């Protein structure tokens, strides 16, 4: 192939975004002069390679290769695709600016899009181009000046560039993440930049990684950046949706919109109902073929890393993805600069000031509290935390993940929990997990009435799957659990007014629970990993946990090992496993049977993974039957039932 002619990359491939990958491709292409190597899109947004003399590109502009003119042209850089240059640069350095390379899309291109070059006269090109360039230049200058006045953080892709999400239209468990995005917390990372390219090219993407690695926030931001924009097909506007099932996708497809759909932790269901995958596989293939591969729908999956590894043992699951590899959020470790941007953003939204004077820093000193007229502990506003800018840089450099919490969620939780931020030296030396464990243990041991009450409030919220309303504390059903918690930990139960005060004012409670809006009476745990961690260390009585936790939470978190031990929330610590081990399968059987007797519907219960466990099944069959349909069966019967066989 001719090196001096534009050669498109293979479908689905993008030009590199870093110097190492660029140099690798440059050596393979082997231009006579290495400086002549370019990988960039053509006028049809198709990425390709060519050997051509580099040109200067103006700041906020991107080079493309115009196959009609056989030369490099410039087009405005679009920040929605990633970072743009702030200075003039050579076209062979375009890999430094993802905003120029990330918009290539080959999956939706039709045969009519790419045709033979149209020959036009030079004046016909120059006059419209000059007019467009002038208008764009005026617009860019106005935009830059406006952002400078507002002090816009250039590392964030939010705010002025995109509309705010209407939080009322989304499930409550995503309120906190959406509020954070609307407050310009999100930071563009190299992983996010790669995700844009993968989604634009393929039409769908799967984000994997451990809890707290930023999967959900990245997924929402990927869809948010397209909200209100024109789709790849003329006349369509991009829309944003959360779905729980694939069956919802066909209803979103129409001639006027190009939907971006998030299926958060969608594949988690197949970990606990593995036989369901064989039932859903055909539907999955049909929907993707009709509405995603050939249609206008874009899909963003998130899946926990351990769930991905677990399901990869299933050939049916692998067939869904075929040769497609998900994007792991741990693939590119966060740079110190990215961590610092995250830290500054989280400090800002939590009203923690950054000072340039070390005399003004208020971080190491004890937090002063006072007991208000209702007996609730509050933080004295006069001792609000202030942190020195040099300390932020040091923290950003030293912050490292542990086996329970990852850097994004550590930054988040340190900023919402003032006690953790004060102990940042201990966090750096002993890990965030150990510091948080110490904080919870001291809370449990405290003899102060307000500490006991506040602990019971948070534990009750945890037993309610991490989502609780003020009404739940005294409702006919959940209220009994709150009473059990108070009896267990020898605390007086609170009336409604006192609970509201705890939720809004108590320092410890606010470090764990988040109000989904200023006027809302509903609170959620700051993060799923924080919820799991809290229940592990706060509720050491396994039987009490089984008897009082939300049944759906138990069915989606409990794992039965081969040693007749139900493993709740296993935590990896080096090469060992630390978990809450409970030899309490009998309690588990009794709890599930009690729920069924009370009319609780457990869909596909006979297909649940518990029913494949021999020890659990033996105990289940020995217990009194709930109904005629609940007949004894062995582990072999359960497997045969899943496969549609009869004995």
Q: Major sheet, described briefly?
A: 5 strands, parallel
Distance between the termini: 64 Å
At the first level of CATH, what is the class of the domain at 159-328? Alpha Beta
Stretches with pLDDT under 50, minimum 5 residues: 105-121, 147-162, 365-382, 563-582, 627-636
Helical proportion, percent range:
40-55%
Task: Record the strand order, biggest sheet.
Answer: 9-10-11-8-12
Annotated CATH topology of the domain at 159-328: Rossmann fold
User: Number of DSSP strands?
Assistant: 22
Structural class label: alpha/beta
Q: What is the typical, i.e. mean, pLDDT?
A: 79
> How many H/I helices?
26
CATH architecture of the domain at 159-328: 3-Layer(aba) Sandwich
What's the alpha carbon Rg, rounded to whole Å? 28 Å
What is the percentage of strand-forming residues? 5-15%
Shape: globular
Describe this entry's structure for a reader.
It is a single chain. The chain has 647 residues and is of the alpha/beta class. Among the domains are: 7-107, no CATH class; 159-328, Rossmann fold (3-Layer(aba) Sandwich); 350-445, no CATH class. It has 26 helices and 22 strands. Strands 9-10-11-8-12 form a 5-stranded parallel β-sheet. A 3-stranded antiparallel β-sheet has the order 1-3-2, covered by helices on one side. It has a 3-stranded antiparallel β-sheet with strand order 17-19-18. α11 (336-349) crosses α12 (389-398), α11 packs parallel to α13 and α16 packs across α21 (528-538). It is globular. It starts with 6 loop residues before the first strand and ends in a 5-residue tail after the last helix. Residues 105-121, 147-162, 365-382, 563-582 and 627-636 have low confidence and may be disordered.
């Amino acid at each position: 192939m001719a090196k001096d002619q534009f050669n498109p990359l293979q479908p689905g491939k993008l030009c590199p975004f870093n110097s190492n990958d660029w140099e690798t491709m440059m050596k393979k292409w082997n231009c006579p002069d290495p400086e002549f190597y370019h990988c960039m899109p053509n006028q049809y947004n198709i990425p390709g390679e060519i050997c051509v003399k580099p040109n200067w590109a103006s700041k906020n502009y991107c080079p493309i290769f115009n196959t009609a003119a056989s030369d490099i042209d410039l087009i405005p850089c679009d920040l929605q695709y990633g970072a743009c240059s702030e200075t003039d640069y050579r076209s062979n350095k375009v890999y430094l600016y993802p905003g120029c390379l990330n918009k290539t899309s080959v999956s939706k291109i039709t045969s009519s899009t790419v045709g033979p070059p149209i020959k036009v006269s030079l004046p016909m090109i120059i006059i419209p181009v000059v007019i467009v360039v002038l208008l764009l230049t005026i617009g860019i200058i106005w935009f830059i000046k406006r952002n400078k006045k507002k002090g816009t953080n250039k590392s964030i892709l939010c705010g002025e560039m995109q509309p705010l999400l209407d939080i009322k239209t989304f499930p409550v468990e995503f309120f906190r993440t959406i509020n954070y995005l609307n407050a310009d917390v999100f930071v563009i990372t190299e992983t996010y930049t790669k995700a844009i390219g993968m989604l634009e090219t393929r039409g769908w993407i799967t984000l994997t990684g451990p809890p707290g690695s930023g999967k959900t926030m990245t997924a929402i931001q990927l869809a948010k950046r397209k909200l209100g924009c024109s789709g790849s097909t003329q006349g369509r506007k991009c829309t944003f949706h959360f779905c729980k099932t694939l069956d919802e996708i066909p209803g979103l497809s129409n001639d006027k919109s190009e939907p971006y759909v998030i299926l958060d932790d969608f594949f988690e269901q197949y970990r606990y109902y593995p036989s369901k995958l064989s039932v859903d596989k055909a539907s999955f293939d049909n929907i993707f073929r009709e509405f995603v591969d050939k249609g206008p729908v874009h899909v963003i999956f998130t899946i926990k890393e351990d769930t991905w590894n677990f399901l990869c043992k299933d050939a049916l699951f692998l067939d869904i993805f075929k040769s497609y590899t998900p994007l792991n959020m741990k693939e590119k470790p966060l740079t110190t600069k990215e961590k610092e941007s995250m830290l500054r953003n989280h400090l800002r939204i939590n009203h923690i000031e950054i000072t340039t004077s070390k005399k003004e820093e208020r971080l190491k000193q004890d937090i002063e509290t006072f007991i208000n007229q209702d007996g609730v502990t509050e933080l004295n506003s006069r001792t609000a935390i202030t942190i020195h800018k040099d300390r932020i840089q040091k923290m950003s450099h030293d912050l490292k993940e542990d086996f329970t919490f990852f850097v994004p969620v550590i930054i988040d939780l340190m900023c919402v929990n003032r006690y953790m931020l004060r102990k940042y030296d201990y966090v750096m030396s002993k890990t965030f997990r150990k510091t948080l464990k110490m904080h919870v243990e001291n809370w449990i041991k405290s003899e102060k009435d307000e500490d006991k009450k506040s602990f019971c409030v948070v534990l009750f919220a945890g037993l309610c799957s991490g989502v609780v309303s003020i009404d739940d504390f005294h409702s006919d059903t959940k209220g009994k659990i709150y009473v059990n918690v108070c009896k267990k930990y020898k605390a007086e139960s609170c009336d409604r007014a006192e609970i509201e005060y705890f939720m809004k004012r108590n320092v410890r409670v606010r470090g764990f629970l988040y109000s989904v809006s200023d006027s809302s009476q509903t609170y959620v745990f700051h993060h799923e990993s924080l919820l799991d961690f809290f229940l592990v260390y706060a509720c050491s009585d396994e039987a009490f946990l089984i008897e009082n936790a939300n049944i759906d939470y138990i069915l989606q978190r409990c794992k039965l090992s081969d040693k007749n031990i139900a493993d709740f929330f296993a935590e990896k610590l080096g090469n060992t496993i630390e978990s809450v081990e409970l030899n309490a399968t009998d309690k588990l059987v009794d709890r599930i049977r009690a729920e069924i007797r009370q009319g609780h519907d457990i869909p596909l219960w006979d297909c649940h993974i518990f029913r494949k466990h021999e020890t659990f099944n033996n105990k289940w069959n020995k217990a009194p039957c709930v109904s005629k349909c609940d007949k004894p069966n062995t582990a072999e019967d359960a497997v045969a039932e899943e496969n549609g066989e009869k004995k």
